[in-house]
């Protein structure tokens, strides 16, 4: 009897997990973990940094150029914004631990996917995997933007890591594989991402146009919560409140609602950052104010896990400032700025970039983005402290 025939069913089944584990061991050997945290927390966080270093900082320079008349600032803004896809590609690939040739190739993949999308007309895709140059066929060109770049770069990067440094002609093989996989991923996914973003933008714009009070609350609370969670609110807003989305909203007659929703997003993000900065002052002092108010409220996630109730004051504040923004001051914002809050004061700068410096915009930003979040969050937190729901050092940070 042969060795194979001598094995019983139990022995055969016992060997099956080993084969499965060998596959994951192969992936792990090449630096691939297939972990949701790696892709949707770490990689998305890196994408936010790429956005900040290109599109967002370019927006700031563009605003400064408009109000100072300094031409060189406008030049910086133009090229910084143009490098958005490349910055996303490099940031994600670097965070995923890719080798140099993979990282450099992902710059091109990011640029490709960021610019690719679909021509959409009457709610249908008129042209698949289109670019800006295809607009003459009619409809609205809707780029997949950072969302498309994210998925394409992640896929291309992981395939690039599988072949990197495996051959003697690595300088050819790695870029070729990474770029080909990146193009295929972009071709397949960018139009679908653009289609989803299109309908999400249409829904938000339409709902805010007809229900500014309700949507002011919803958008403000949701975006504020996302800002504090370990995912990128900036990246999400860059996808939703894009130039293509604004063009689609304009054609649908809902541009005002679209812009107001962006303003509500700013209000919600500011409420979280300023709120936590103020209510944790007794634990963290001025260092905490700067770290959270001009940095990120994400620093409180560890404390939120220990006592979720500390999240309530800032969230309630955002539920109030959001509709004040949409219904009273009518603050407007687009793009990545809508998801940044007071981080480097990018949110308020984005509002001024879209609305200009008017009495309404200046007073609105001061009240909605700074004063009201501070006062309301402090009021709610003090009530909760007296009730024993929030205790001393519940929001202590290791700064």
Largest sheet: 3 strands, antiparallel
Strand content: under 5%
Shape: globular
Strand order of the largest sheet: 2-1-3
Helix content: over 70%
Low-confidence stretches: none
Count of individual helical segments = 17
Number of strands: 3
Helices and strands: which structural class? Answer: mainly alpha
End-to-end separation in angstroms reads: 70 Å
Please explain how this structure is put together.
α7 runs antiparallel to α8, α8 runs parallel beside α11 and α12 runs antiparallel to α15. The protein has a three-stranded antiparallel β-sheet. The protein contains 17 helices and three strands. By secondary structure, the chain is mainly alpha-helical. The mean pLDDT is 89. A hairpin with a 2-residue loop joins β1 and β2.
């Amino acid at each position: 009897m042969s060795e194979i025939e001598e094995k019983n069913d139990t022995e055969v089944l016992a060997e099956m997990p080993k084969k499965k584990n060998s596959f994951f061991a192969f992936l792990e050997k090449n630096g691939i973990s297939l972990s949701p945290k790696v892709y949707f927390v770490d990689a998305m966080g890196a994408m936010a940094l790429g956005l900040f270093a290109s599109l967002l900082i370019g927006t700031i320079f563009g605003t400064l150029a408009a109000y100072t008349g300094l031409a060189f600032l406008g030049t910086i803004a133009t090229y910084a914004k143009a490098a958005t896809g490349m910055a996303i590609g490099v940031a994600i690939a670097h965070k995923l631990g890719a080798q140099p040739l993979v990282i450099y190739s992902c710059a091109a993949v990011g640029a490709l996917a960021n610019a690719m999308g679909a021509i959409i007309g009457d709610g249908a895709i008129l042209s698949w995997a289109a670019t800006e140059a295809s607009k003459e066929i009619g409809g609205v060109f809707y780029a997949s933007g950072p969302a498309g770049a994210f998925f394409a770069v992640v896929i291309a990067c992981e395939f690039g890591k599988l072949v990197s440094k495996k051959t003697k002609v690595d300088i050819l093989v790695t870029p070729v594989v990474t770029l080909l996989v990146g193009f295929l991923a972009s071709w397949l996914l960018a139009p679908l991402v653009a289609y989803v973003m299109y309908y999400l933008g249409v829904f938000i714009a339409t709902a805010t146009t007809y229900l500014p009070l309700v949507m002011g609350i919803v958008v403000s609370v949701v975006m504020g919560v996302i800002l504090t969670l370990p995912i990128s609110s900036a990246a999400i807003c860059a996808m939703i409140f894009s130039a293509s989305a604004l063009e689609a909203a304009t054609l649908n007659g809902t541009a005002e609602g679209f812009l107001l929703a962006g303003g509500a997003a700013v209000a919600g993000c500011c409420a979280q950052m300023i709120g936590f900065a103020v209510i944790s002052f007794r634990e963290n002092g001025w260092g905490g104010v700067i770290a959270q108010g001009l940095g990120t409220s994400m620093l409180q996630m560890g404390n939120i896990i220990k006592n979720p109730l500390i999240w309530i004051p800032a969230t309630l504040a955002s539920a109030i400032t959001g509709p004040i923004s949409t219904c009273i001051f009518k603050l407007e914002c687009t793009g990545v700025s809508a998801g940044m809050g007071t981080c480097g004061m990018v949110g308020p700068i984005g509002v001024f970039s879209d609305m200009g410096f008017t009495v309404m915009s200046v007073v609105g930003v001061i009240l909605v983005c700074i004063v009201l979040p501070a006062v309301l969050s402090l009021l709610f937190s003090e009530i909760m402290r007296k009730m024993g729901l929030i205790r001393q050092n519940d929001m202590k940070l290791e700064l």
